[in-house]
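Hey, quick one: can you model this chain's 3D structure?
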Amino acid sequence: MKLISNSTIREYQDFIKAVYGKSNAQHFNSDDMLVNVERFLMRAIKGIRKEDKAKTIENVFISMSWFMSLMNQYHIDVEDIVWNRFPYLCSYCGSVPCSCKKVKVENRKAIVVDESKRPHTIREFQTMFWKIYPPEGRTPEHAGIHLAEEMGELSEAFLAFKGTHSDADFANIILESSDLVSCFFSVCNSFGIDIADEFSKRYSENCHICHELPCSCTFSYIMAYKS
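Sure thing. Here's the predicted structure for all 227 residues.
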């Protein structure tokens, strides 16, 4: 099983399920997966601080894959929630490019979703985020700080849901998950990384480490892995 340069977000999510779903179900609960999303995301932030592009991108991609595994466990369709949150518009000011800094919007604008503008592939979604949040308007450090901020908000959303199991708190998980995805794209845009191209190289044959379907990497190897 593999990803190609014109794969969709949904195909990426299905790929993660097929390759890593069995191993994750055996070894990790949702809390464990959330920790691993955070674990590699923080390593990516360290890469940004040290101006190590390779380390940053490697850890961003690993964090994204753990995130997809987490979304699979909760049966959340990432492509749909991202589009509903960012329908070729900033989710807060409702414009493209984002005008939040210039206008200083105090309240989130109501957004109308125009399905005719919906991207299809990962590359098209990356282009969409490039247009909504132009990378020249923020440094890689700023993009990294925003990524860390959204990771914290997603963790809080999961913590709240664990306590209440309410529909409202689950809906907040969906919103915060969408925001985190937008930041994954923004970091890659800041570094000029073509996500679809990197995925097609990394996942050209099942698991990028053992190349098996399903993944046969051991639990001890996964927990000790550092890039």
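One thing worth noting: The mean pLDDT is 95.
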